[in-house]
Amino acid sequence: MSTPTRTLTLRIIELACRAPSVHNSQPWRWRVVDDATIELYADHHRQLQVSDPTGRNLALSCGAAVHHGLVAAQALGLTAAVELMPSGDDLNLLARISLSSGTRTDEALESLQALEERCTDRRRFTSWPVPDSRLAHLAKAGSGWGAFVIPISDVTNRFRAEELLKRAMNVQAMDPRFAEEQREWIDPSRVEGIPLANASPPANGRPLSRPNRFASANDAEAAEAADAARVVENSDGLVAVCSAADDQQSWLEAGQALSALWLQATHDGFSLVPLSQVVEVEETRQSLHQDVFDSLARPQILARIGWSEATRTPLHRSPRRPVDDVIAG
């Protein structure tokens, strides 16, 4: 049995900050109200103004951090309850986490291990297909946070989704504003952004099988690669994190679902790569909503899932800001 303390609260924030965020921008600020209460605020100074003018990806990132915080609290033997958008007056206050005494479980410890192992590896997967049953299992694990995960297995819908993804990548690659924003987040410092080695990772002597949004600094080359190569291989699993509505709370819920999906995928031995480009372009986001999901679900992000090569060299972890830098005074 554990009880909330200042030490445990800071440890929860440290682990929550290992959550994935768009371009590893870490767009969050935390406030420790007391030993049993933590608040999460949006840090709009870290918002990507070109690719994320509405703050969708910022909220997704913060939602993932909330879920990571809940996982950390449970693994530390605490009970955690979250309230999203707790104040109607302050839209920057995204979540409040309340802690109380609890008991550590084996399941919580397994989730913590997945949290510590999780990373974004953009290198090619193996050619082993991901069975539909495994995708369904992952989708179930990622659903239930106010959002839901939908495998895209139907041949027609998958073709449409892949074409829209390629279309979005082409649009962004030909816009110098997108290219400049991406360059700004490649190795900007030792505590944030995408490390150069991870942005354009070595292929271990084998050609990369798909374009990488960070791999080329040349806009024309990036557009040509996106058009010529398959973004998602036939053996990859493809899923969408969706919600019923399309507001800030829905984006936070989708971020929680993405985190739950990713941790389960890590636990099960899969790699997951988020594909946010298709929702960052207005045209392709609306087409995905209408043509793939029949206007019944609001896609917030796509992800491809596959088996990693067992012998590949581990990537360096993306850096994180010190805890002192993310806590509001």
- Report the top-level CATH class of the largest domain: Alpha Beta
CATH architecture of the largest domain: 3-Layer(aba) Sandwich
- Shape field: globular
Strand content: 15-25%
The total beta strand count reads 8
Low-confidence stretches: 202-209, 223-228
* Lateral arrangement of strands in the main beta sheet: 1-2-4-3
Radius of gyration: 19 Å
* Helix and strand run: HEEHEEHHEHHHHEHEHHEH
Q: Tell me about the largest β-sheet.
A: 4 strands, antiparallel
| Helix fraction by DSSP (H/I, runs of at least 4) | 40-55%
Looking at the structure, the CATH topology of the largest domain is NADH Oxidase
Number of helices: 12
- Mean model confidence by pLDDT: 91
Descriptive overview:
This protein has 329 residues and is of the alpha+beta class. It has two domains: 6-119, 3-Layer(aba) Sandwich (NADH Oxidase); 132-307, NADH Oxidase, CATH 3.40.109.10. Helices cover 41% and strands 17% of the residues. The protein contains twelve helices and eight strands. The chain has helices spanning 6-16, 56-75, 106-117, 132-142, 155-173, 176-184, 196-199, 219-228, 248-267, 277-280, 282-292, 323-326; strands at residues 28-34, 37-42, 78-84, 93-101, 148-151, 237-243, 270-275, 298-307. It has a four-stranded antiparallel sheet, covered by helices on one side. A four-stranded antiparallel sheet has the order 5-6-8-7, with helices on both faces. β1 and β2 form a beta hairpin. The longest helix has 20 residues, at 56-75.
